[in-house]
Design goal:
The complex is a heterodimer of chains A (about 300) and B (about 600).
Chain A: H1 16-36, E1 40-41, H2 43-46, E2 48-55, H3 61-70, E3 77-81, E4 83-91, H4 99-110, E5 117-125, H5 127-155, H6 158-181, E6 185-186, H7 188-219, H8 225-257, H9 260-290, H10 295-299
Parallel strand pairs in A: 1-6
Antiparallel strand pairs in A: 2-4, 2-5, 3-4
Helix pairs in contact in A: 1-6, 1-9, 5-6, 5-7, 6-7, 6-9, 7-8, 7-9, 8-9
Chain B: H1 6-23, E1 30-38, H2 47-60, E2 67-71, E3 74-78, H3 82-96, E4 105-113, H4 117-121, E5 128-129, H5 131-134, E6 136-143, H6 145-166, E7 173-177, E8 180-185, H7 188-201, E9 205-212, E10 215-222, H8 224-249, E11 255-259, E12 263-269, H9 274-282, E13 286-292, H10 298-303, E14 311-315, E15 321-331, E16 335-342, E17 349-355, H11 357-369, E18 375-381, E19 384-389, E20 401-405, H12 410-422, E21 429-437, H13 439-493, E22 496-497, H14 499-528, H15 533-565, H16 569-601
Parallel strand pairs in B: 5-22
Antiparallel strand pairs in B: 1-3, 1-4, 2-3, 6-12, 6-21, 7-8, 8-10, 9-10, 11-12, 13-15, 13-18, 14-15, 16-17, 17-20, 18-19
Helix pairs in contact in B: 1-13, 2-3, 6-8, 8-9, 8-12, 13-14, 13-16, 14-15, 14-16, 15-16
The chains are: A alpha+beta (about 300), B alpha+beta (about 600).
Chain lengths: ~300, ~600
Amino acid sequence: MELFRPRADIPFMRFAPIFNAISLLFFLVAVGSLIVRGLNLSIEFTGGTLVEIHSEQSITLPPLRETLVQNGFPEAQVQHFGSTKAAIVRLARHDELPPDEVADNLRALFAKHLPEITVTRVEFVGPQVGRELAENGAIALVLVVIGIMIYLAIRFEWRFSVAAIIANLHDVVIILGFFALFQWEFSLPVLAAVLAVLGYSVNETVVIFDRVREKMRASRGKVSTASLLDHAITSTMSRTVITHGSTLAMVLSILLFGGETLYYFALALTIGILFGIYSSIFVSSALLMWFGVTRESLIKPERKKEEAVV
Amino acid sequence: MNRYPLWKSVLIVLVVIVGAIYALPNLFGEIPAVQVAPIKAGAPWDAAPVEARIRETLASAHLEATGFERDPDGLRILFAETETQLKARDLIDAALNPDPKKPRYIVALNLLPGAPKWLLAIGAKPMYLGLDLRGGVHFLLEVDMAGAIAQRLDALAADIRSTLRSERIRSLGIARQGNTIVARFSDPTTAQQARTVLTKTFLELAIDLQENGDETRLIARLTPSAEQKIREFALKQNITTLHNRINELGVAEPVIQQQGANRIVVQLPGVQDVAKAKDILGRTATLEVRLVDDTPGALEAALAGRVPPGTELLTERNGRPILVKRDVVLTGERLTDAQPGFDSQTQEPAVHLTLDAAGARIFRDVTRENVGKRMAILLIDRGVAEVVTAPVIRTEIGGGRVQISGAMTTAEARDIALLLRAGSLAAPMRIVEERTIGPSLGKENIERGVNATLYGFLAIALFMIVYYEVIGIVSVVALFVNLVLLIALLSLLQATLTLPGIAAVALTLGMAIDANVLINERIREELRAGVSPQLAIAAGYDRAFDTILDSNVTSLIAGLALLIFGWGPVRGFAVVHVLGILTSIFSAVLVSRWLVNLIYGGNKRISRIRIG
């Protein structure tokens, strides 16, 4: 079976301005929602108490919210978790209440509405820990970006490195934008997913760039950069779709069967993979073209390893 | 040409077989068990009567144990179901520890690997499951280092006071101010004199002289190295104390680890009673030295119910009653160290105590006045006082070095030293993070994680076989080998597997297939260009290798960054991610090539490869 065997190169670069405009729009919306709404950070980052409760009957949330507000938890959040028979209660940090008493307190407060609840999970994070965690996350992100840039600069050339990192940071910002826009919970596993996506979607760019370089060196300057890029993208299409299809199948499986805890983790990966393909093809390649990469810029770092595969 | 040399084939087969063996224990699940051990670790005990007692208890409650195991560390009773295990634990606990305030045995829940003995004998163990998969409590405790240093400075200020007094140097006052100790003197000469004495005595202090109007001040600060030592000591001491306290909780495999410079992680798998766990963690035991009332007839009177005024009837560790005066001679605050050792003359096991200056002075005075009498060392734990030892005072003891000896074994000496040292925390701690995961949630998490991986794997396998036919089957087998090797590595390293870790297994598999897709596409491309099948296979593998390496480097960079900065469950994700990248290179390139060689390599003139 074979799905992709185009006879002629698809003129991707002709549409580059349109796609980049779309990209820019997405990017601006993402940045806008990040600024306006901000990330809904989990208590791992903000500090606070989280209690997961289960009940035999389905839980109606509004009375619980009201009860919490009336009892001195104005910023408490209550959400269903997985099914209507389970809920998560998030409380901002209350110094005066030790976490295990919070659980007992909730049980007492909710007794009126829910006769019997079981508390399956209590998490409490101090504000200092949360801050450190957020800092470490940021450091990790910066390190990954720097590491990848150095790697690509050595492997290719600075223009490739900059184009790839812009494209892939664009993915990261869009993932974050989704989380801000829909106020999905941004937890530690989501951060891990974002970093994994960063490493993963750079691959795609590397494969296309590999092909671009190979063809560029062989072309002796007769072919335009745009048609070289078209050729590179077209000839790697099959691998792109199959590889990402497989990874996506796995990620969707986590999304569907992995349960609530892994849901947003898988969601971040799904968005990341989809936008990773898109940005490798349209954003990074177009940037490469606009940065004015030429055959000459690749001649100097002539090295043994020239093969592009796929 | 498409043949591996024999050594290479043998190596690949060997790695896969070893991997399979070490991954195997994960298939057997775990057996619920109850573990019984004496509360004093390492002390000799007779398991036989205890075992008989347990058998009796279980028989009378009609609970059936599937097996008994005995080793020097303790006794394990195996059960068929978790439910029986839980009931049995409570029963056994009640039977062995009739007085819950003075437990003699630790009765803990445990899960034993269900794998056959020969697997366990070669060190093949199932993966170590994180708390989110097995349920339990997680605490992150922060040691108050400022508090530890302030405590130490307070003690030093007292020492300085008594040193100056014994040297007959008059000061206008000595007090701790923040992180310094300030001593005031009326004239520079006295101050200078004091400074000389103090610098010689207190090596851990840096002392500056400061003229301030009509008085001269000495400002003492801890040297950076001394401060560092205090921090390290406080952390180590607190970890030791936590170990002892948690022992009493009866947790099978507790994790107590340092994290960063001033934090301690405590994980108690299987524990659900957070309140009790916290009570025990946060408890402070105190040490007291008091005199024993050996007046003839007093003990008998007390035993008969007439406790003489000013005394208290307590029990020694060996269970013998002892009458102790209520006046406290010394408290644990004056104790700076306790170490096991030997009496320099009799070579008997002994415990060497070191007291601070003030403690030494009090001790000298009290021992001088009470030669020939007994002195009791008490450990007060949750309001219950126990006499650790009550030696006879043979002579006046000065210098702050005290030796407790007589009628104890080496192990007992070690225990007493530990108890005295660990009795109280070196510095206050507070909980900065806490997580409780119910056991059912853990089981659910495992199930979900495994299902997600399984369905994802099946989807990929189906697609690969339809799309690439025989070569697709090879890719799927290679992917499966990757999974086996990854599980084997995780089991071997006993790295903690968390739910994000399981997700990382799935993700790694999803990403690992990329290598095979690259190879297969390249082979197709070569075939399309008219290359003969054998050459196409060789070229496909050779040329794809660079790109496979390349594409894994970027993932590896991300994985390593997470490993360095990750925390808790995310660390679990990073460990699996990084290991998975390594195993995937091995299986996708070497294993799949070996299989392809096996299928197509034998015949030089095959006309076609079934690659779809």
